[in-house]
Amino acid sequence: MKPLPRPFVLVNMAMTADGKIATANRSVATFGSPHDHEHLLALRATADAVMAGARTVDADAVDLGPGGEKFCRRRLRHGRAEYNLRIIVSGGGTINPCAAIFRHRFSPIIILTTERISSVRLRRLQGLADDVHVCGRDELDFPAALAWLRKHWQIKRLACEGGAELNAALFRQRLVDELHLTLCPKIFGGRAAPTISEGAGALSLGDAAPFRMRSLRRIGDELFAVFRPK
Predict the structure, then answer these.
(1) Strands, DSSP E only, in the chain?
(2) pLDDT at 30
(3) Contact 47/70 with Cβ under 8 angstroms?
(4) Which of 53, 130, 161, 222 would suit a FRET pair with 122, their CA atoms being 20 to 30 Å apart?
(5) What angle do CA 74, 15, 176 make, to 5 degrees?
(6) CA-to-CA dists, residue 221 to 15, 18, 39, 195, angstroms
(7) pLDDT one-digit tens code per residue, 169-190
(8) What confidence score (pLDDT) does residue 61 get?
(9) pLDDT above 90 coverage of the chain, percent
(10) What percent of the chain has pLDDT over 70?
(11) Residue 1 above 60 pLDDT?
(12) How far apart are CA 137 and CA 3, in angstroms?
């Protein structure tokens, strides 16, 4: 089979029983069990790179790394580098330069942005990241960006961990090859509470990104589902 001209893209998210990924004020965004966290790290171990949006990176003390020696060894057993590459997406380059990810230099950091970024922000990010790629005028051109990641960084498998706007762009352009959802036994409510996919959204059923369930398992009070596009 001819290899894809872009990486295989998997999206991994945890959500409440009412479909929220954070509280309405976004102060609570981590609510899964220790097993869900283990699942996240296990998925990272299968990927060449982990990608997240600027708000996700800014809001949490995350480094998008493999998560310790156990998962580094697992990566090596799968024939991957000990540490995954890390990708931050920000159309305007509005990334906190003091974010935790920049204080952990164990693997390259790549930033994807657009022509909307100011020259000041571009220079600042070039001093923080290993590579800053401008791809798209007003919105990020994800097909071109993914092809560039495959060609220049040899990324064949990419794990995306949100947030909602980033997920929405990938779903809208039919670039998600696998969706992992953890359903957690909590209700957040709130019209302003984000879901796994935000943005303009589908205006009709025909515009919806169609998926089929590949597997479903229960561990404790959580459900772990895997979907593939139809």
Answers:
(1) 8-16, 49-53, 85-89, 109-113, 131-134, 157-160, 178-184, 211-219, 222-229
(2) 87
(3) no
(4) 161
(5) 65
(6) 13, 15, 15, 20
(7) 999 999 999 999 999 999 999 9
(8) 79
(9) 78
(10) 98
(11) no
(12) 28
- Partners of 159 in the β-ladder: 10, 50
* Domains with residue ranges and CATH for the chain: 8-229 (3.40.430.10)
List Cβ neighbours of 97 (8 Å cut-off, separation of 6 or more): 124, 125, 128
Taking the C-alpha atoms of residue 72 and residue 186, their distance in angstroms, rounded to an integer, is 32
Sheet holding 211-219, edge to edge: 131-134, 109-113, 85-89, 49-53, 157-160, 8-16, 178-184, 222-229, 211-219
Pinpoint the alpha helices (H) of the chain.
34-44, 54-59, 69-77, 119-128, 142-153, 164-172
CA angle 39, 44, 49 (to 5 degrees): 160
Question: CB within 8 A of 138, min separation 6: which ones?
Answer: 91, 114, 115, 116
Q: Pairing relation of β-strands 85-89 and 49-53?
A: parallel
Spatial distance between the Cα atoms of 78 and 139, rounded to a whole number of angstroms? 35
User: How many whole angstroms separate alpha carbon 107 and alpha carbon 101?
Assistant: 10
> Each residue of 85-133: pLDDT tens digit?
999 999 999 999 999 999 989 999 999 999 999 999 999 999 999 999 9
| Residues with Cβ within 8 Å of residue 228, at least 6 apart in sequence | 177, 178, 179, 211, 212, 214
pTM: 0.94
Kindly report the backbone phi and psi dihedral angles of residue 60, in degrees, each rounded to the nearest multiple of 5, phi listed first: -115, 155
Distance CA 66, CA 163 (A): 19
